[in-house]
Amino acid sequence: MVKIFLIGGTSSVNKENFYVTVGSLIMKQFDNFPLIEISGPPMERGFQYGEQAKDKINFSIELYSKSLRDLGLKKDEILNLAKDFLPSIKDWAPDLIDEMRGIAKGASITLEEVTLINSRTEILQLAEKKSNFEDTNSDGCTGAFIMPKLSATGEVIHGQNWDWKEECIDNSIVVRILRDDGPDVLTFTEAGGVARSGLNSNGISITANYLKCDRDYVNLGVPLPFIRRKALECSYYSDAIRIVATTQKSGANNMILGSSEGMGINFECAPDESFAIMPDDNGLIVHANHWQHVAALSKLKETGISWSPDSFYRDFRVREQLLQKKKLLTANDLKEAFFDDFGTPFSVCVPPYQDTETDPGATVAMIIMRPSIGIMEIAPFPAINKKFKQYHIDRSKS
Q: What global pTM score does this model have?
């Protein structure tokens, strides 16, 4: 693992030299996120997943186990927290339980350890609540969706910067899931995860951003990766909307759900209620990590600003950079907006390995999707690396 520290943020060094130096080091030692392909019934494709990504899956387990040990939890307590989610997952998505069993078998780990990876957001928050500790790392993200009327090619363009722990540069992968009973799925995720950002062969796409509110973690719901995966398994956009908008969650989350047929909707999700934000008059959705819907702001209390005050200007910066071009937009225009470094290190594009009083982690990946042609482009550590790798899914199955 490459680890580079910049003491005190970029203000104490020449930023241009820093990017050149660190960028060359990263690219010498790090390539792109690996692609694995799985197929067959749930148990079988899970086994293929576990076998192919065994080392990275074990990295995922140790990464979050360490975070939980740092909160004072012992191994059996960690696995018991994971086990608590299994009944709700089994009732809601028994096929994904089978897939996780396959992952566990292929990677020679336990079902509870696979569940830990897929419930890590919920488990970390529950553990922090129990220990009265708040982690300064934020599973942040800035997402955007461009409607056809604002697109130079007349297609939807969907993307995000994923901001999270820097170490996830070493456990993130792309999984192509070839299914016999529905659309194929292409997803960027942490190894062992069933889904994060992605698209399917029917042109449905999804990205997600962290939110916090006063209703969080009162009751246990379905962990977020399962909701995203089930949305990506849908043949019809309306079914994906129902899954995102109505499934009971443990904590708040924001999800942008798109369709290559020419539609995108942003869902600000409280655990028990969702608020739909439609594209603006320009044909644009941009969302970071604060609540925007008027009804949401009148009904619940925003509790995430203390760890993500930069959210207010991140979505503004992306929107302004896109609209000030005063032209129809391309995928490259969205990339350029996501590269924005205003307020570094607390920026749209966060450089890795900042040693600051409140650690913003890093933009681990920039993900740009063109669902109508089945393309996902990803740049690892985009603050210091402008090279993208293309991943594909066959749209002819739709």
A: 0.92
